Structures are given as C-alpha cells and as structure tokens.
C-alpha cells in the first residue's frame, strides 16, 4: 500500500490489481452517464431550435425594442402631463372610487366562485372514494368530470359563458366555480382517501349513529385540510378573477385592458398597484389562517 | 360498558364538568364566522346580478350551444392544419418561457436565499418583490409585452417568462436554503477540492429539484400558453377565441379537445421524465 500525504490529510490508495477493476467499472458507469447527458443535450438543442422558430423569436427585435420595455415602466411612473405620479397622488388615483368598487367586484367574483366550487367539490369528492361509493363506474365518471373541469382554463369557460349568460360578472363567477370544482374536487378526494378509520370506528363502537360517525369521526379529520385548500384556491382565484374582465366577464380586468390598450399609462400603474396590494394582503391573511389551521391539526 | 356509562351519565357530567362544558366563545366565533361567510355569499350573489331567471335563461342557451359542439371535428383538413400549427406555437411559447424563466431565476434565487446573502434588508426586499411580482397574471404580462415587441408569440413567451420568474426564483431560493451541508463535507474529507465539493456536493442535491420544477412549470405553462392568445400573444388561444366569437361551436370544441389531449400527453411525458430525474438522484 502506498500513502500520499497532502497538506492536511493522509489518503490511502489501493494497490493496482485491486484498483484496476474498480476504476474500469467507474469509467464504464461514467461513460454511460455521459452518453445519456449528450443525448439529452442534443434532444434539448433540437427542441430549443424548433421552439425558437415556432415562437418567431427574433432577438434582434428584442434588442432593438428592449428600450421600450424599460421606458414602458418609466411611462407607467408618469402622468399624462409628464410629471411623476408621486408628485400628485390624487391625480394618479383619480378613479380610486370606481376602481375600488371594481376591485370589490373582483373579490366577490373570486369569493362566490370559490365557495360555490368548494361546495360542489365537497359533494363530488365523496362520489369518487372507494370507501363511500361502491360503484366503480360512478367513481370513474366523477373523476373524468373533475379532470375536465380543471384542465380547461377558466378563461375559456368564461368565453363560452359570456355568450350564454351575457356580459358581466355572472359568467365570471360560473367559470371560476367550475374550475374550482375540478381543482378542489381532486384535492378533497385525496384527503378523504387518506383519512384514518380508527376515529370513525371509535364513535361507532361507543354507540354513535352513522351521522355521528361522519360528524365526529370523519369531518374533524378532513375539515382543516378542506378549509386550507379552499383558502389557497381563493388566493389563486383572486388573480384569475382580476383578468376575467379581459373577455367581458366582470371585475377590474375590463378597466385594466382598456387602460393598457389606450395607453393610459398612469391608470395602468394605478390599477396594477391596487391589484398587487390587494393580492399580497389576501395572501398574507390567508397564509396566517392556514398556519393557524395547521397548528390546530397537529395539536 | 355502554349501559354503565348511560346509567352514570349524571355522575360523569358532574365529575368532568370542565371538559363537557361547551366553550361559549369558540362556539360563538365559529357560528358567527359561518353566518358571516354565508351572508357575504348571499350578498355577493345579489350584488353580482345573479337571479334564477338569468341562470335559467343562460342554461337554456347553453343547452342550445352544447349540441352545436357535436361532433367536435374541424370542418376541413386546412383548418386542422391551422390548429396544429397554433398548437405547436403554443408548445414553443411554453418551452421558451419556462427555460428563460429558469435561467433568469438562478441569480434571483441566490439573492433571495438566506444562507447566501446574509443582509436582512436585501433578503426582505427580494422576497417581497418576488411576492409582488407573482401577483400579476400571465395575461397582464402578455398585454405589457405586446406593447413592447408587438403582437405575436414572442410576446407570449416573454409573458410566460415574466410571470414564472418570480415563483421560480422563490422555489429556487428555498432549495438552496435547505441544501444539506454533509455531502460537501464528505467530499472535502475524502480529499476533494473546493470546486469538486460544489460540483459533487451541492449540484447533485439542487439539480433534481430544479429540473423537476422546470418540468412541472412546463406543464402548467402549456395550460397558460393556450390562453394568452386571447389577448393577441400567439398560440392556440387566438384561434380558439376567434372561433368562439364567430360562434363556430364545433370548431371551438375541436380546439378545446386538441388542447386537452396535448396537455394530457405532456403530463404523461413529464411525469415519466420526473420519475427518471428523481430516481437518478
């Protein structure tokens, strides 16, 4: 055995006859990995090239117009008369009353849509759990319906519902509700799948009725999860509801798209700021509540 | 057992009064909270203009529309070709947006990682601006980028990139913060250099997490990319919204079906790749 000494450690090196097969195996393993890596890199490059062509990417355009992007934000920060928005907040938020009302409408769309969707998801999730639904075809059908509801983007539902129900917040709410049903239904079903049977049996063995078994055995196990998923969905739906107006389905989106299209820069920045503040505040509140719920559960 | 309990109900109640006494404040708060939520819900329905008549009329019209969607097959091959082309563009947008976001998120993620940038102020500011950035929807980014680079898929790819950048950077910083120190020490202890300790100690830990996140984002971006066309940023959304606006219902249904199939295929592929990446860790 030979030993080589570096500055701070002593490393023992195996003799050649023992070392050679190990090195060979290592070399082969590395070569296999390298081949895989090269193959991956080639596939990736091909995909990238196709994508660049497909998306009509022109870095020249981007380079020439990137100034537009930075200057866009500069323009967002200035009023029509050229003064900075901060110099005259009253002028900047001239439409605060109207925008607050529309923002309130957006929040209501998200709220009503989330609650409606959560209620449907609550009913449907029991239809696709083996323990509670004996017919497999009903379970499969429910799962397919939920999958469809969450895969089609809500704005597509909104486009269709605007034709059927007319312009305004009603189609927006329905679109949010359907998408929420799909998304929450899947999560709820997973929660119900994973409940512990012992509390239910405990209630049953001490003489509880079927209702008491569900109420005191099952519901306490799933409730905090259901509520926290619903809150999370509400956060997402507020963002979604803010753009419903783009297709005429109510809320602040209508005002925003008009301002962007007509180049009312100060209005765009004011509305965006309102949306951002609103979303961040709601996220913070709901995060608090969700942490409280989790703490309750682990107790 | 049960009979004994039933016979001694009064005794049990007397002995465990503290446990059995209803907690009035909690009960009031819960009932009040639920009542307020229901009241807000009902008020919302009224304020947003829901009425039974409107819902019935809408459902009636929807009942007219759905038969018109059958069969969900494009009228001609030429149209199918247009849709396939748009679908390809959608995938390209999602792919480019995801990749660009992933690359740009690396420096941002390091900035937001507590163990890399020790300054509390920088950390707080980066985290908060990431939160604020996340609150802007892809469609809004698309509108902004259209003003910069003009209508078309390029604006769409940039929009996907901008909206993902923030959440991706956040995930990235979390992955960096939770990386295990021991592999690094292991490499150093067996005589590796500092560079080798990063290459074999940190990169193998962070890479699979990041790669699987990239795949996950690619999946969700395929969905987002199908709709950004609605505001003119390229992809299948443009074709879809056109067909819905001119009330070509079976064409619209065909497009929706194509999107669903594509998304399902992408999901299946990326699940496989993810299993491979995580398995290889």
Quick synopsis:
Chain A has 299 residues and is an all-alpha fold.
CATH class of the largest domain in chain A: Mainly Alpha
Helix-and-strand structural type of chain A = mainly alpha
Low-confidence stretches of chain B: none
CATH homologous superfamily title of the largest domain in chain A: MetI-like
End-to-end gap of chain A: 59 Å
Rg over C-alpha atoms of chain A, rounded to the nearest angstrom: 29 Å
Overall body shape of chain A: extended
The count of domains of chain A is 2
User: Which percent range describes the beta-strand content of chain A?
Assistant: under 5%
Keywords:
heterodimer; A: 299 residues; mainly alpha; 2 domains; 2 strands; B: 281 residues; MetI-like fold; 13 helices; flat
Layout of helices and strands:
The complex is a heterodimer of chains A (299) and B (281).
Chain A: E1 2-5, E2 10-13, H1 16-54, H2 59-76, H3 89-92, H4 96-125, H5 136-151, H6 154-165, H7 169-193, H8 197-205, H9 210-242, H10 253-261, H11 265-298
Antiparallel strand pairs in A: 1-2
Chain B: H1 2-7, H2 9-15, H3 17-20, H4 24-47, H5 52-69, H6 77-112, H7 120-134, H8 138-149, H9 153-177, H10 182-189, H11 194-227, H12 236-245, H13 249-280
Helix pairs in contact in B: 5-13, 6-9, 6-11, 7-9, 8-9, 9-11, 10-11, 11-13, 12-13
Protein model, in words:
Chain A has helices at 16-54, 59-76, 89-92, 96-125, 136-151, 154-165, 169-193, 197-205, 210-242, 253-261, 265-298; strands spanning 2-5, 10-13. Chain A has 299 residues and is an all-alpha fold. In chain A, strands 1-2 form a two-stranded antiparallel sheet. In chain A, α5 (136-151) packs across α7. Chain B folds into 2 domains: 2-50; 74-280, MetI-like fold (Orthogonal Bundle). The model of chain B has no long low-confidence stretch (mean pLDDT 83). Chain B is mostly helical and 281 residues long. Chain B is flat, with a radius of gyration of 28 Å. Classes of the chains: A mainly alpha (299), B mainly alpha (281). At the A-B interface, α1, α2, α4, α6 and α7 of A face α4, α5, α6, α8 and α9 of B.
